Amino acid sequence: MQKIYATSRALLLAGGLAGALFGCKNVLDVPVESQFVAANFPTTLSDYNASVGAIYANLSSNYAVPYWRMQTLATDEAILPARDGNFDDGGQYRQLHYHTWTPDHPNVLTIWQWAYGGITTCNRLLNVTNTFNFTAAEKEARLAEIRAMRALYYFFLLDLYGNVPIVTDYPTAPLPATQPRAKVYEFIESELKALTPKLPAKSGTSATNTQQYGRPTKGMVYALLAKLYLNAEVYGAPARYPDVVRMADSVQANTNYALDARYRDIFLPNNGPQIRETVFAVPYDQQIPGNQFTRFGFFYYLTQAYGFNVGLSIAMSTTPEFYARFNLPGDARTKTWLSGPQFVPDGNGGFTTTPVYYPNTTDQIVINPVLTLVPPKPMDLGNTLATQSEGVRSIKFYPDPAIIQATRLNGNDVPVLRLADVLLMKAEAILRGAPATASNGEMQTPLVLVNKVRARAGAPAAASIALGGLLDERARELSWEGWRRNDLIRFGQFETEYPLPNDALKMDKSTFRRLYPVPTIELRLNTNLQQNPGY
Amino acid sequence: MTNQYFSKPVAQNVRCVLLPLALALGAPAAALAQQTVKGTVTDEKNAALPGVTVRLKDGTAAVATTTDGTYSIKTTGPADILVFSFVGTVSKEIIAGAQTSLNVTLLPDAQQLNDVVVIGYGTASRADITGAVTSIKSEEFNQGVLTTPAELLQGKVAGLNITKSGDPNQRPSVVLRGPSTIRTVNGGVTEPFYVIDGVPGASIDLLAPDDIATIDVLKDASSTAIYGTRAANGVIIITTKRAKPGQSRLTYSAYGALAKVSKKIDVLSGDELRQYLADNKTRPLTTPTDDDGSNTNWQDLIERTSYATNHNLSFAGSANATDYGASVNYLKNNGALINTSLERLIYRGFINQRFFNNRLKLGVNIINSSTTQNDIPQAQVLPGMLFYLPTVSPYNADGSYKENYTRTGQGTLNPLSLANNNTYVTKDSKTLVNGLVQVDVLTGLKFTLSGSTQRAQTNYSSYLNSQSGLAVNLGGVARRAEYVNTNDVLEAYANYDRTLGLHSVQLLAGYSYQQDRTNDGFGITTQNFANNALGFNNLYLSNPSSLAQIAFDNNPISTLRLLSQYARAQYQYGDRYLAQVSLRRDGSSVFGVNNRYGYFPTAAVGWRIINEEFMRGRDLFSDLKLRAGYGVSGNSQGFDAFSAILIYGTPPGSSKYLNNGAISNVVNAVRNENPDLKWESTATANIGLDFGLFKNRITGSVDYYIKKTSDLIDDVLPVSSTEFQYTTYTANVGSMTNRGIEVALSVVPVQTGAFTWRSSLNFSHNTNRIDNLSTDRFTIPYIQTAQLGGKGQSGNYSQIVQPGSPLGTFKLWHYLGKNEQGVSTYQKADGSVTATQPLTTDMQEVGSAQPKLIYGWANTFTYKAFDLNFLVRGVYGNKILNATLAGLNNPADARLQNIPRFTLGESFNDINGYLISDRFLESGSYLRLDNATLGYTLRPHTQYVQALRFYVSSNNLFIVTKYRGIDPEINIGGLTPGIDNQNFYPKTRTFTLGLSASF
């Protein structure tokens, strides 16, 4: 026994010695050497700016593809048909086209998470801003910037999903509950109204414009409020057409906003702060991913003629029905589409007389605007050279010659709100009953406003304008800019069918589909969420 | 007689190393001596055997042989029986008689090759083991061009499922007793924990198979839990070769091997494809881009007859108080695909010196392993060599590689160009230094301090040259990256062994500290070189035209610390009753501050029935033992060290924004904090029976286990975006259970003077089931995995992880045959039939990748100097998703990509035969003649050469399987097992000629 006792003593001693050497508890608090953590971030102004950058990087990451698809592929403005089974991708594009999406649709999930990811980031950064070492004026300006961006994310949710939780604090109380659409509308309105005095106005100096580019300004808030008021009835609130006019005039009051002379320039790869009519745009670059208009919407047999050599998708085009609106003589906006025999571009928005041939042939490429489906595959055009050439392609977001195979990105910034849209919103509000007003000394009737937009595009002036013509004018002016679904719902035409030859499937015309469903996963994760009616 | 228990025949159980010590402390004075017997004990090679216990069978006297093998013992009379015993040999009993000189030769114990088993922090006699442990000695290792220790065990250990493709640079996937995690981070998550010569967590890349003496596989938690949190997937303990006391040895072994791909996919030749299109009245291929009149067999161009060579020189000695040894190993293994190879050079040396009458032992062990791996872009080459049109020549008329970048379909890049214009080189240098201090404090009490540092420096270089189809018009893209990983381990433990009468106790207590620091380094990618002459060697000469063309690696440094205390007590009574308890407490920096410490207890009992009174005279049995154990072990392998804390970083996909005209970095949360993150723990109950029949002509064991892993960690758990900053979370969410039975049998059917046949068979059955995936806080109904892509199937999942189903459950479209038009039809969710591509919601569960049975059957025949070995192994009852064949089976795209002969039996009109459905979910069962080896051993009667063995060996001689792909040995590890998706590096058939010489 003695020995066992001695042994255990020895063991304890050995263990104790080792424990004393290494046993201090904080050995397990390993320093994080190469990553930012709460202890070392954010501390400097650069840290702060990099944090705020997350709001914008998040915005650009999904705006021009998944968000755009939800707003566009569900309309006649664009279609992503399968090509002999390619690009069926679990049916996600035809579900949008035929309004048969489910709460499991990948875009429905991605965009919900994208918007709330942006909102949560804004909420967290409001805390950071409040505790950061800023002067009172700096603090107010930065808080206003973040709240305006949060309102923009909420606007996307309001428009797509309607009834969503309103989360304004971080850390978030668990499981926030769904709020009715009208509540969300009110929240956004009150936020935006509170922010206008605190945000900067667009200036005449290019340095300031560069600084403000892609960020909230007074003009952005006015234009967004105009959007909100124009759709007030859709969003479950009383009509506000005079307020649309008021907001449009507030934008116009700042004469630094003006329609740019050349329609094409607004969307070129080098677009940016120099575009005077942009009220708010999402900046893209080869290093800022998210814009893939060329990858999905251009015709890849034309790549070399346009000065680059990258493999592209074959899939996306507009529908013949939508393209038929581009029928005005001299309209620069028609040139954003590729249809018929193809020629080498002249680099200035026009074309040379040199034809472009299919590879290794002397057959000129001819794009056929008609989309003839080939059953039995659903919404499928087949994959022959001829059927690959079906579908009007878009060069509105003109191919970026800096595109590379690995990423296939465009550097073209994508406008969210711009002056032409504001003018057309004002025209529509007046047509819907608001009194016409003068702006900068000019009496602006709907016809005056529409013709301003037409004149810039080189299209003939209209003799008269009614709501139907206005919707077509919006289609011409704002094609592929992500507003078509919003417009069609407001005009009650979201359920209008536009069948293609041999179309075996039918659109689901249920009006509950004017709202997207809450994604399944989110419903499961937050039991206080309510699914939208009909799903 | 105070020191009587020292001299008592400590019996079979005590380790041999203790015996000289016991002698040194005072030999017995036997009063009744009537006679002294002296002699020498030698082994089968006539070399002196020191440390052999020589004792009187009925009495207390015992001595040990000295370093020259001699002994001297006093007997009480001629009737005394002398017992000579030594670890690993057959004991001998000899009646003393009248002789005073008695020389004895002890022969190796063939039936009891596994006599001494390495357990964590110690060794034990196999007879005393209470857990499920399988030991494999070097003689039993698999033969052939095997580069990792796991391959040596393939088919030899019940319950151990090892899969390996033909890739010389790919590690085998190892799964013991079924999967026990749903994490995805990296391979270490599901692999066993390796301990090399007492160094826990050492890299298995450090070892040449030639240097390994034994491998012990600890399977149940009662055995593994002493390694606590790293042991949930089992522990594999490797012991390297040493010299026996008093001996020196010098061995040289070498082999050369030739390998050929054992099976190709039978795709059409150019002429056949042209004919096929003509027969089906479709437009001919476009000339010259898609048809230049060629008949190119792309598989033949990419595959080659490869060779491998291996040399190993090793020496060791043990004299007086010193053990030493060194070895050098060179391996060159060229892959069966061009431009793939592994070259490895390992140096190893150790020295142990004992002081103070052997009471202090100091040792140093150093290993360095340098490897160079060459690889090609397999992700493109492997599909390319099947899909690429056979009607196209590899080269243009000017000798440049032919490409058509506008062709759509799959396999659109020239595979030969891919293999020749893209270079991936990985150079890796690993060094392990291990220092050891061992003190015999008191008799039976030993204190060990072991420190080790492993430093791995890895240099990744790649160059996609200006002709590369992966970097068109970029003027060459070069990447250099350099990373250092270090692992520091300090172990301090004390063993106390004591035998008192019929009681025998072994105690262990210890402390361990470990730090693993990984990813310390950097990587840069740049592009645009004036020419390709310099490859990746000088990035300064690149000429990128914009910042976007330079990329830096984002590989954060990850430092993980483990702090542990452990204790174990083993008790034996009367050679019949065995018991063991152990406890380990692990603290890990990985886990949330609220749950950093975990306790891992075990308890086990054993009953050596054979030694019971009632078994006496029952000669049928030569061994019979029942054992049962329960234990809990953890899994903290394969973790990012900072899994539980809030991390800010540049989020992938949204890392840049425009800041005042300048493109700037974004920093945002990339990980949520989880202060409650805790250990995955695996509890195993194991019951086993060991038996020997007919004087151990038949031995074997049967084990049944239930292994339940709870607090499963999901490292990509989706969380509500209305609540969390980042959309996924690392949290504990569920549990899964593996149940199984393992049987191992060894038989010596024939044993005559010249001819012996030994045969061993093992098989095991395991069922895996996810029990649940929910906690109070999180509910996940299922996790979808295995996005395989494929034409028009982007984003579709092929497997599902959900409660009630095993890991690796396939969820696919259900194929219903072809309709009258010859078009494949599928079942929709509502039960109706569709001849078009169904929706993802139409998929149904259709089988699992988990095998029902895995087995191995090894045989050794020896006749005089000849030996013949063969191993048959296989699996039964698993499913493989042959997505490769699905993708190839596309008649409508035969103008864009080649088709297999299989498709000739299909309707040309089948517009959706390529869809990944259960039609391509195939039986993965196979039986493989894995190895056959014929050897001849020469024992020249000279003093310089002990033995010379020549052998010829062949691996993968034949396989019996219904699987239609290249080979059914598809990766079975990880979260998405059993999927063949155009990514299988072909297996080879190998012929080896080898020699080993010992001096």
TrEMBL record, chain B:
Q: Which family does it belong to?
A: Belongs to the TonB-dependent receptor family.
Name-wise, this protein is SusC/RagA family TonB-linked outer membrane protein
**Could you tell me where this protein is found in the cell?**
Cell outer membrane
What are the boundaries of the signal sequence? 1-33
Positions of the TonB-dependent receptor plug domain = 127-235
- TM ranges are none
PROSITE patterns, alphabetically? TONB_DEPENDENT_REC_3
**Keywords, comma-separated and alphabetical:** Cell outer membrane, Membrane, Signal, TonB box, Transmembrane, Transmembrane beta strand, Transport
Name the source's superkingdom: Bacteria
Q: Which InterPro entries match?
A: Beta-barrel_TonB, Beta-barrel_TonB_sf, CarboxyPept-like_regulatory, Plug_dom, Plug_dom_sf, TonB-dep_OMP_SusC/RagA, TonB-dep_OMP_SusC/RagA_CS, TonB-dep_rcpt-like
GO-annotated cellular components: cell outer membrane
Q: In this protein, which residues make up the domain named TonB-dependent receptor-like beta-barrel?
A: 394-839
Answer whether the UniProt record assigns the keyword Membrane to this protein. Answer: yes
The main location class comes to membrane
> What is the protein's membrane topology class?
Multi-pass membrane protein
